[in-house]
C-alpha cells in the first residue's frame, strides 16, 4: 500500500483516513502532530503581536544566529525562497530585521536582527520558556532520555544537517 497523505493518530495505533492500519508511522505521525500543535499553540499565544508563528520563529533564530545568509534561513526553515522573502519583507517593514550585502558574497544578503527585533524575540522566548517548563513538569527524566534517543536515531538515520556549521 502506498499512501502519501497525512495520517491521523488514534488511541493505540495509526490509521489512514480510509481506516487502513499503518504501524510504520509510530514516530513520524506523532512528531508531525506535535509540531502542528506547537505551531497552533504559539499562534494563539502570539495573537495581537502582528507576527505569524513562523515569523516569530525566524526572529528567535536570528536572536541566536544573526547575522546569517538568507540561504541559511531557507535551509533551516524549509521555506521556498519567495515565501521567505515575503516574510523578511514584512519583518523588515516592521523594523524587526535589516538586510545588508554579504561581504563574503556580494550576490547575497545577510539578515540581521534590530534592537526592536531583539526585544520581540526576547518576549517570544518567554513564551517558549513557559511551554518548555510546563512540558518538563509533565514528563520524567526517563521520558526525556527516551525522547532524546528517538531524536538521535532520526538524526543518525537521516544524516541531514539542517544548520550547517559556520
What's the helix and strand layout?
Blueprint: E1 8-9, E2 14-15, H1 28-45, H2 53-65, E3 68-69, H3 70-77, H4 81-93, E4 97-102, E5 105-113, H5 115-138, H6 141-158
Antiparallel strand pairs: 1-2, 3-5, 4-5
Helix pairs in contact: 2-5
Could you provide a short overview of the structure?
The chain is α+β, with helices and mostly antiparallel strands and 166 residues long. It contains six helices and five strands. The chain is globular and about 50 Å long.
Structural description of this entry:
There is one protein chain. With 166 residues, the protein is of the alpha+beta class. It is built from six helices and five strands. The strands form two sheets. The protein has a three-stranded antiparallel sheet with strand order 3-5-4. Strands 1-2 form a two-stranded antiparallel sheet.
